[in-house]
Amino acid sequence: MNSLSQTLTLMLENRLALWLNKAADLDAGLYLVGGCLRDALIGIPGKDLDLVCDRAKDFSRQLAARHNAAWIPMEKDPALPNYRVVRRDNPEEALDITQMHGSTINEDLLRRDFSINALAAQVETASGRLWRIIDPVQGRADLEKKIIRQVGPNSLADDPLRILRAFRFAAQLGGFEIEPETLNCAGRFAPDLANISGERIRTELFLLLNFKNSLAQIKIMDSRRILDAFLPAIIPLRGLEQNTYHHLDAWEHTLCAFENCEAILASLKTHLADCALEVEDYLNQANRRAVLKLGVLLHDVGKPATMKRDPDSGRISFHGHEQAGIEPVQQTALRLRLSNIEEKLLLLIAAEHLHAQVLLDEKVKEKTRLKWYGQYGQDSVIVLLAAMADILAKAGPSAPREIQQKKATAAASAIKDFYGRIQAVLSAPPLVTGQDLKDMGLTPGPDFARILDTLRLAQNAGELADKPAALKMAKRLAGSKSSKKAGC
Predict the structure, then answer these.
(1) CA–CA dist 281, 462 (Å, integer)
(2) What residue ranges define each of the domains in the chain, with the CATH number in brackets?
(3) What are residue 73's DSSP bridge partners?
(4) From CA 458, how far away is CA 473, in angstroms rounded?
(5) What is the pLDDT of residues 242-270, one digit of tens each?
(6) pTM confidence score
C-alpha cells in the first residue's frame, strides 16, 4: 500500500479492524472502494467506508449481528443492493457494503463512472489490513493529473446523471478538470438528463451548489447547454436585452449575480460582522445555501414574459417580472422534487428579491419594513442575500457603481438589524391576545384577526407602551368597525 500515506493507511486499517475483528471466519472476498480510497490516495481523510463483496447481504447481516449494530438494507436498485451497518453507540461510524457487480472486482470497477472512482484495495477480513490496489483503468494516474475521465465510452450514456457527478467532483476535489472527450460526451448526452428522476438530479445539483466555488462548473455546464435539460426556464434569458440599469443581458446578469452570491457567502464576516455565524447556521440547515444559489439562478426567469419596449423612447421594462417568475420557478421545484421548505424559499426569492430592494430605501417607513419582516421572519435573510447579489450585478448607466454599493451595504445592514434588533421584536409576546379580545366581547372572525394584526404591527413599531395602551387601541378599532357597520 505504498500509494497511500502511512498515516492514512493506518487510519483506514484501524477503522476496518474495529469492524472485522469479529469476522475472521467470514469469507467474503472484501474490497475497499469508493471515495474514501480515492481521497486517501490524494491525501484527504475520508469519512465513509465503502466495501464491496460477493455476498454482501449475508456478510453485512452477520457483521451487524456480531457487533449488535443496526443493519439497514438499501435495495432501491435490485441490480446493485447495498447494506449499511451502523454502530448503535456511534452512528457516525458505519460501513456501506455493496454486492459486487459482476463476477470479479475488475468487472465491478469497469462498470463505475470515472477512473478516479474505479479503484479498489483488497481487505484482509481477519485484520482489516489493506493489500494491493486494483486499478484497471489507470485511475491513480488520473488522480495525479487531476483529471476526471469516464471509465468507458458509454459510461455517461449508461447513466446520464454521471454528467452532473463529473461537475460535482470537479468542484469537490478542487483543481480537477473534466477530460476533453468526457466533456464532449457530457454535452452530447445532456438532453438525456431530462429522463432522469428529479430526486437524483436535485441531489447532485445541491451537492454541487453547496461547494464554495461552483461558479466555474456552472459556467462550463452552461457553455455545453447542460443546464437546459433540468433548468429550461433559463433558456429565454440568453441574449435578452435589458434596460439601462443593466450592462449585461439577462442571463449574463444572472451569472454575475451568482458570482456575487458566492463571493458574499465566502466573506460573510466582512459583510455581516457579528451576525455572520447566525447567518451561517441558518444557511447550513434545510439546504438553504444550495436553495439560495438556485434562487439566484432563477430570480429573473419572469423577465422574458414581461419585457416591453416603449415605441417612442425605446425604453425597456419588465414590470411584474417577479410574479411572472413564480410559475416557472414552481415548475422547476416540481421537476426537481424539492421539499416543501425548499420550494417555499425558492419561490420567496423569486417573488420578493425586488421588493426587498425597494424596502431598503431610506424613505420607506419603519412599520412597512417590520410588516415585511413579520411576514417572513428569518427567511427574510435569504431574500436579502439574493437581493445583495442582484444589486451588485447591475452597472448600467442608470445604476452607478457607487449607488449599487450603497444599496448592497444597506442590504447587509438590514440583515444585521434583523439579528440585532428585529428578531427580538418579532418574538416578543403579544401585548393583547385573542382571549383578551374575547373578554372584551368580540367574536372570532375576520375583524378579530384584523384587530390582532393591527395591534401586533403597532407593537412591533414601538407605538404601544404597554397592555393598557394596547387594549385601549383594541377598543377603538372594535368601535370603529362597529360604527362603520351601523352606518351601512
Answers:
(1) 29
(2) 6-138 (3.30.460.10), 146-230 (1.10.110.30), 237-427 (no CATH), 434-487 (no CATH)
(3) 83
(4) 10
(5) 999 899 999 999 999 999 999 999 999 99
(6) 0.90
